[in-house]
Design a protein that fits this description.
This protein has 210 residues and is of the alpha/beta class. The chain has 5 helices and 10 strands; from the N terminus they run E-E-H-E-H-H-E-E-H-E-H-E-E-E-E. The longest helix is centred in the N-terminal third of the chain and has 15 residues, at 59-73. The protein starts with 12 loop residues before the first strand and ends in an 8-residue tail after the last strand. Residues 1-5 have low confidence and may be disordered.
Length: 210
């Protein structure tokens, strides 16, 4: 297994996704992290959480994750200890929510609402170098930022499941052609595979004009 160290600059934008082997973001009836999270992966998540990311998300992800975070903070929530800690911890980190339907004040702590164009707003955030940025779910937002050429790193954690019957939220629908230069590859807990790339949006197949 090869491994490199990929450092994040002060204005980097990462599209950060967990994914089944067949390209789904979630699956009906399956638990969070498909029930396959382990100590190495959870330790890596904790380390990443200390890097000062501002998380970018759309309205649907905001509604879902804020509700889950609130539920996880309640006694007897039904979440595992690791899931609950990850969800409640999101309340403390800065989040920018892009929506034309939500209204202020947002109830999830440390959440800022942006009602204008997300691509323009993120481009300005990158220009001013306010700190590293990472998407949180939000598949359509991630796709728009990638198409606009704003994504510096495309990072996947591939879970060893195929959810052909129950899979929901196909990640790559609507994507352009993209070439990927690998920066990092590692295995967590003998089963989860991290793949980290620099993406380049193409106008056609590799070998043709870009």
């Amino acid at each position: 297994m090869g491994e490199t160290t990929a450092e994040t600059s002060s204005a980097d934008l990462i599209v950060d996704l967990i994914i089944s082997l067949d390209g789904y973001a979630s699956a009906e009836g399956w638990p969070g992290w498909w029930g396959l999270e382990g100590p190495e992966y959870l330790a890596w998540l904790e380390q990443e959480g200390k890097k000062g990311y501002t998380f970018l998300l759309g309205a649907n992800t905001y509604r879902l994750m804020s509700s889950m975070s609130e539920e996880a903070a309640a006694e007897g929530s039904g979440f595992s200890g690791d899931e609950g800690a990850a969800l409640t911890g999101l309340a403390a980190v800065p989040k920018v929510v892009f929506s034309s339907t939500l209204q202020t004040p947002l109830t999830w702590p440390n959440s800022k609402l942006v009602t204008g164009d997300a691509v323009q707003a993120v481009a300005e955030m990158k220009r001013t170098g306010t700190g590293p940025l990472s998407t949180l779910g939000s598949l359509s937002l991630s796709r728009s930022l990638l198409i606009a050429g704003l994504v510096d790193r495309f990072r996947l954690v591939v879970f060893p499941v195929i959810t052909g019957r129950t899979g929901r939220e196909r990640i790559y629908d609507g994507y352009p052609d993209v070439s990927l230069e690998m920066l990092d590859s590692r295995t967590f807990d003998g089963r989860l595979q991290l793949l980290e790339y620099v993406p380049t949006v193409l106008s056609g197949p590799l070998g043709g004009p870009t």
